[in-house]
Amino acid sequence: MPLTFAEDSPAAIPLHIIETAALAAWLEQQPKAVAEWVGLNGFTGKLGDALLVPAAEGGPVMALAGYGSAAKRARGRYALAAAAMKLPKGSYKIASGLPQNLLETECLGWLLTGYAFDRYKKTSGASAALVAPEAVDAARVEAIAAGEALLRDLVNTPTSDMGPDQLEAAARKLAETHGARFSAIVGDDLLEQNFPMIHAVGRASTTPPRLLEMTWGSAGPKLTLVGKGVCFDTGGLDLKPAASMLLMKKDMGGAANVLGLAHMIMALGLNLQLRVLIPAVENAVAGNAFRPGDILTSRKGLTVEVNNTDAEGRLVLADALALAAEDTPDLVISMATLTGAARVALGSDIAPYFTDDEGAASALAAAAGRVDDPVWRLPFFEPYETKIEPKIADLDNAPAGGFAGAITAALFLRRFAGETRYMHFDIYSWSSFNLPARPKGGCGQGIRALLEAMPELLPS
Fold first, then answer.
1. Residues forming a β-bridge with 230
2. Cα–Cα dist 159/229, whole Å
3. CA-based angle 453:341:307, to the nearest 5?
4. Are 365 and 377 in contact (CB under 8 A)?
5. In the prediction, which pLDDT does 1 show?
6. How far, in Å, are 124, 236, 298, 445 from residue 282 at the CA level?
7. Which residues contact 170 (CB under 8 A, 6 or more apart)?
8. Which residues belong to CATH 3.40.220.10 in the chain?
9. Collapsing DSSP states into helix, strand and coil, what is residue 440?
10. Contact at 8 Å (CB) between 176 and 167?
11. Which residues are part of the catalytic machinery?
12. Averaged confidence pLDDT in the chain
């Protein structure tokens, strides 16, 4: 089902969104037959309730969607989507009950109920279509939904069909869709053009490593997005246990998220100059794999001691960040499924991020609240800098001890971002359960908050 709004028509069924506490008062204003039908069908207005109310001649005269209470809604997201998933096929038009400040987010949630990953098995999302309310910017919501669907498809696709070459093809297709410029540096050419750490991490794979670059826009502030594109992570010679590999197809979730955000930016025609950099590799095991104890010399010239080949994401990001900084953009944002420490700290549903820019942090926090896309700031804690400084190289990719792993990884990356304004997101990019508008599988994190905050992050 396309994630777009339905055309308005007289056939659209009026939809009343009703909180549990408001149901009695609402019923008092309805004809007796309506009140009796609601009572007979046990509709109470709780979250996820959905009910069609028939007319005397048989067709639906209206639909009801339960909206629970503010306390219940605070425990999840996309409250209206829970009811939308239960409504039968048809076109619905909101008639009452949805607060103005929640319109865009709830409409987006409704559109996303139509998403289903059906590449390998015939399946479908919800079939109830929604007419865009007049107060909603329909094009904006549809662009966000399309960006989210794109990244979900990328993350959900197994590495057999989403290796570095297929990720390149997906990025190239996105560039062509929006008239953006695209290039790729592949294989041993990485060494010739000075991306030694991207090459080292990906050289053991049968699919060569690569650096993907997309640029769009010719005016406005410069924004560079850098996404970790590790299409599968075995852990390298520091091999992961089998159970830890089960979700490693999603280790390119950072790349998927920046591509989803890039689609939103380009589709909405934001006034900025966009650059997207994706180091796309597979961290595989072979005779030429990089080893624990190796010293790698980065693009920036800093040497890195490899104390764990399973801490490879920061290595490939480092070379890409060094390239990003050379262009002196107004803002660099990196996104990566980087550390288990971030999950331990904040769980899977909150996107941790790092920045030294207080204004950017304030703008992002406010934006995240407006669009219900939770993020939480973690510190670039200066005293931990010594943890990433080994004895025989400039930097250590995996400090011993395991404490503050998300922070030490972020500090490592900051060394390569130079003097640019920099934000780093350590995301999970996966929904572990079937939730309203977020089925089990790949999902976006932090990108709607970033899109919402963009006018404050990059003032024209």
1. 281
2. 11
3. 115
4. yes
5. 55
6. 31, 9, 19, 23
7. 154, 162, 259
8. 13-136
9. coil
10. no
11. 240, 314
12. 97
pLDDT of the residue at 57: 83
Across the 460 residues of the chain, what is the mean pLDDT of every consecutive 10-residue run?
Answer: 89 97 97 96 96 90 97 95 96 95 96 97 94 97 98 98 98 98 98 98 98 98 98 98 97 98 98 98 98 98 98 98 97 98 96 98 98 98 96 95 95 97 98 96 98 94
Task: Extract the tokens encoding 38.
Answer: 């609601």
321 token code pair? 């960040």
Q: Which of 325, 324, 299, 308 is nearest to 196 (CA)?
A: 299
Those residues with Cβ within 8 angstroms of residue 355's Cβ, 6 or more apart along the chain or in another chain: 361, 364, 377, 380, 421, 422, 423, 424
Looking at residue 134, its amino acid is: E
CATH superfamily to which 13-136 belongs: Leucine Aminopeptidase, subunit E, domain 1 (3.40.220.10)
- CATH superfamily ID and name for 142-457: Zn peptidases (3.40.630.10)
Residue 109 and residue 105: Cα distance in Å, rounded?
A: 6
Q: 130 is written with which tokens?
A: 């929604």
Whole-angstrom distance, CA of residue 271 vs CA of residue 275: 13
> Shortest CA distance to 200 belongs to which of 333, 318, 59?
318
CB atoms within 10 A of CB 120: 10
SS3 per residue for 379-425: CCCHHHHHHHCCCCCCEECCCCCCCCHHHHHHHHHHHHHCCCCEEEE
- What is the reported pTM? 0.97
pLDDT value of residue 168: 98
Burial class from Cβ neighbours inside 10 Å (0-12, 13-18, 19+) for residue 258 reads buried
Q: Match 């010679």 to its residue by tokens.
A: 237
**C-beta separation of 226 from 335 below 8 A:** yes
Listed in order, the ranges of the chain carrying CATH 3.40.630.10 are 142-457
Q: Which residues of 220-257 are buried (b: 16+ CB within 10 A; e: fewer)?
A: ebbbbbbbbbbbbbbbbbbeeeeeeeebbbbbbbbbbb
Per-residue pLDDT tens digits for 93-132? 999 999 999 999 999 999 999 999 999 999 999 999 999 9
Token code pair at residue 282: 């597979």
Write the CB contacts of 302 (distance below 8 Å, at least 6 apart in sequence).
318, 394, 395, 415, 416
Phi-psi region of 58 (alpha: psi -120 to 50; beta: other; left: phi over 0): left
